[in-house]
Amino acid sequence: MALTKESASQIVAKFGKNDKDTGAAEVQIALLTERINQLTEHCKQFKKDKSGQRGLLILVGKRRRMLKYIQRTNLDGYRKLIKELGLRK
Description:
By secondary structure, the chain is mostly helical. Helices cover 75% and strands 0% of the residues. The protein starts with a helix and ends with a helix.
């Protein structure tokens, strides 16, 4: 259920400036989105897993706050990121 090193490194390479740029907001949002997608599938399968649902809501809140930050600081980057990740806004 957790992200593997390979998938995380692919996301970092795609959204970061270099392979070690894990602190960039775009990379963090992309990693959160991947975790949210995995946890969403888990919660669909295990409907009574309330702690999983709570964790999902926490991750969605973190991603929303980071997206607001990107929107304030870099509007073009925000629009590009939304489009690449397939988020609706």
